[in-house]
Specification:
Blueprint lengths: L3 H34 L8 H22 L9 E4 L2 E8 L8 E2 L4 H30 L3 E5 L3 E6 L2 E14 L1 E13 L2 H18 L5 H6 L3 E7 L5 E7 L5 E7 L10
Parallel strand pairs: 2-10
Antiparallel strand pairs: 1-2, 2-3, 4-6, 5-6, 6-7, 8-9, 9-10
Helix pairs in contact: 2-3
Length: about 260
């Protein structure tokens, strides 16, 4: 026969055990998925792996190109604020209009970014394949073409690689993409418009662009040798594209 006190004690023990079981269940629910997902970097989805590996490299390439007039290694350039800013329109003669240096500017920039990230792309995909192999996966990776596109409001890099992973089940991944929020597309279009005015008149009214594009800041900084540095800044994200032009220059001492 169980006494009243003993019965109360057993009930209390059962309650404590139930609370512990519930608490353990909550902890497993909250933390087990995180512990599992962080067990090894190779448990990442392949797309996430490439995103983490390549995004900063692409951002740096875009920044370098944008600060230097569209080229990683500018040919004809003017040094301003420690940057080699490429001439997108240039003449070394007096009284003459400038000659456009990059008639296909958007395509040129895409090519420059692509060439700058080429080695990192190969390294990241090889590293990803090796990481899966160490986890016991059978891998089949087929390299493909990489394409960089300047599009409205974004820069899209598409890697035409194919990766097949087998470990019990088989999964195939292809067309890896990284999208940067960057309106370099519009800045390049405006730069081409400014260059058009430079070839015709050797100058342009920059307020026209700011009146039309309220989120755009346009600066024109004149240098002693007749060079003009144009700086386009997106007020929303502070992304910058800058370039140089030298057109219809007058000899020293002559003003108009």
């Amino acid at each position: 026969m169980i006494k009243k006190g003993e019965k109360g004690g057993q009930v209390a023990i059962f309650i404590i055990i139930a609370i512990l079981i519930i608490a353990l269940g909550v902890l497993i629910y909250l933390y087990y998925p995180k512990l599992f997902s962080n067990a090894s970097p190779t448990t990442k989805n392949p797309s996430t792996y490439i995103q983490d590996c390549m995004e900063e490299t692409i951002q740096n390439a875009v920044k370098n190109v944008s600060l230097q007039g569209g080229s990683i290694n500018p040919g004809a350039y003017y040094i301003y604020d420690n940057n080699r800013i490429e001439y997108l329109c240039y003449t070394n003669q007096y009284y003459r209009p400038c000659v456009v240096q990059q008639p296909m500017l958007a395509q040129h920039i895409q090519s420059e970014i692509l060439n700058n990230i080429k080695d990192a792309t190969t390294s990241c995909f090889n590293s990803m394949e090796d990481s899966y192999k160490t986890q016991g996966y059978t891998t089949d990776m087929k390299p493909g073409n990489t394409v960089v596109e300047l599009l409205p409001d974004k820069i899209v890099t598409t890697f035409g690689y194919e990766l097949t992973l087998t470990k019990g089940e088989t999964a195939k991944y292809e067309d890896f993409k990284i999208v940067l929020n960057n309106n370099l597309y519009r800045m390049v279009s405006i730069a081409n418009s400014i260059i058009g005015w430079e070839t015709l008149y050797g100058d342009v009214d920059i307020t026209t662009y700011m009146n039309y594009y309220h989120d755009l800041k346009v600066e024109k900084i004149k240098q002693m040798d007749g060079t003009k540095i144009y700086i386009l800044t997106d007020r929303n994200d502070e992304n910058v594209f800058q370039f140089a032009s030298r057109s219809y220059v007058f000899p020293p001492g002559i003003t108009v």
